[in-house]
Structures are given as structure tokens and as C-alpha cells.
Amino acid sequence: MQQFLGIGIVLACVFGGYVINGGAFHAIWQPVELLIIAGAGIGAMVLGNPLHVLREMLVQLRQVVILRRQGQEFQRQLLLLMYELLQIAAGGLKALDAHVEAPRESPVFQKYPLVLGEPKLIAFIVDNFRLMAMGKISAHELEGVLEQELEAIHEELMQPAKSINKIAEAMPGFGILAAVLGIVMAMNTVGEGASSSEIAERVAAAMVGTFLGIFFCYGVLDPLANVMRQVVKQEVSMLECVKVVLVTHVAGKPALLAIDAGRRLVQLNIKPSFAQLEGWINALHDGGASLDEPAANDEEGAGPRRRRGDRVVA
User: Fold this and answer.
1) Average pLDDT for runs of 10 along the chain of length 314
2) Are 139 and 247 in contact (CB under 8 A)?
3) Which of 299, 296, 249 is nearest to 82 (CA)?
4) 304 by DSSP, 3-state: which?
5) Looking at the domain assignment, is residue 242 inside a domain?
6) What does each C-alpha distance from 17 to 13, 28, 109, 221 come to in angstroms?
7) Fewer CB within 10 Å: C terminus or N terminus of the chain?
């Protein structure tokens, strides 16, 4: 909704101001200029990017249009999923095989549909639990491996936004290209005996190309690239959260402390408090009832209950 509101404001202000100033829409409706500019931009994008980048670009554009934001409910499901997996892993990483080999068939993963809807996140979780199950690995070694993996993932996911930004920078040039072609056509009409009004009309039509190039650059593609960067940042933050949970677990910390370490990397606007996290875990132990409500207090003024084994030790 916010993206549509933004583009609506841009269109209303730019074209509304044009009309208020006495302009007519038919004067700026130049399909040929639009074809040249848009076609050159799309062609350059296809020419300059491998197929997998174009596919990822479509995925991110769909996310921008759908505007799927990861709210606190998503964070609750992610943190509780990691907590359950760590609880299972406490009995031996081999106990996780049934879950990480087929996560979509696992009753644990099925309890958290929002997380299952993120294929990159699911792949990251199961791959690294497999890595931990393959042999003993220290927290320092695991952190180094995950840092390199996250750096590679971030670089790859940023490619579509970088490509959109490059095309945005090229749009004024494509607009000038369309304008030059329009001027060439206008000059050709001089030799054919065109009147001054006809020549002026063609020159004005050619100038629309310059306008469209600048408009697409600063009014459409550059903001779009920025939103795509935010989508990537959101995806990488989920992976960072999982990384910290796994590293803290391998370091020998209790499950609750490992989950809390991941909670600290959640974006501030949706970050749950430690009391909320503890309440979710208590509700999970109590059978999953009223997961969205805070855990009952032991007595008035007391904090949420802690189960044995989940106590944070300084």
C-alpha cells in the first residue's frame, strides 16, 4: 500500500502540476518515445545480467508489490522454531535428521507456516544443522563459515537492486537518445516543406523523451532499487538471527540464551522484549495455548515464569 501511495503522489504532483500550468496530456503522450526508452532499458537489463539475477529480480519485485513485511508474528514463529530445534538437538544432533531432511513434512516446521514460506531461510537453517551434525565444530569455526556464507548471499541478493540502479542512472541517457532521434525526424520534415507549427510540434514531442528518461530515473527506478535493497536487508537480517542462535548454541549456552542472542538482532520496530520471548516459550511448554498472550505470573508483580533448564545463568 505504501509503495502505491508513493507512486500516486509522484504522478499526481508531476502530471497534476503540468495540467495546472495549462499543459495537455495528448502533448506528452508519445508512445514511440516511450517504446525507445523502455525498450532500451529492458534490453540493457537483459544484456547485462545472467538469467539467475533476472529471476531473483522478478522475485524481489513481486515482494515489493505484495509488500510482505515480516512482523512480530513472523519473528515469534522463527524464534520458537529455532528453540524447538535446539531442544531436539540437545538429545543429539542425529535426532534432527527426520526434521532437517524433509522440513516441509516435519511436524515441527509445519507449526510455523510463515517461516516455511521463506525458502531461503529454510534452506539456511537445515543446511547448517546438517553441518553441525556432520562433526564437531567450534563456535569460532562455525561463525567464520556462516559469515562467509552470509556475505556471499548478501552480495548475490543485492545484484538485482544494483542492476535496477544502473538502469536508473542510464535512463536520462536513453531519454536523450530518444530526443535526438525525434529532433532528427523533425529536421527531416524541414526539407519536405513542413510548416513552423509542425516542426515545433515534432520538436516538443522529441523533448518528451528527455522528460520520460529523467522521470523514470528519479521518480520510478531509483526509489524501486531502494525498496529492493530494504527487502534484501530484511532477508539477510533473518539469516543473521539464525546464525547468532546457532553460534551461541555451539558455544555451549542454554537454548533460551541462544534464542535471546538471536532476538537482539531483530529490527527495533518488531523486536520482542525478553519478557515476551520468555512468555512465548512458557506458552509453548504449556501446550501452545494462547501464544500471543504474556505468560502468567507466579504472583502479582513477578516476572514471567521460567522453566527449569531455561534459566539464564550469568
Assistant:
1) 80 87 84 91 93 92 74 88 88 75 87 89 89 80 91 94 94 93 86 80 89 92 92 90 92 90 86 89 71 39 41 39
2) yes
3) 249
4) strand
5) yes
6) 6, 13, 53, 21
7) C
22 located within any domain = yes
Per the domain annotation, does 296 fall within a domain? no
| Residue range(s) defining the domain that contains residue 140 | 1-67+81-281
Q: 180-183: long-range contacts at Cβ-Cβ below 8 A with a sequence spacing of 24 or more?
A: 180/206, 181/36, 181/206, 181/209, 182/33, 182/206, 182/207, 182/208, 182/209
What local confidence, expressed as pLDDT, does residue 68 receive?
Answer: 59
- DSSP type of residue 137: -
In a domain, 248, yes or no: yes
How far from chain centre, in Å, is Cα 211?
Answer: 30
Q: Any idea which residue has 508519445 for its cell?
A: 30
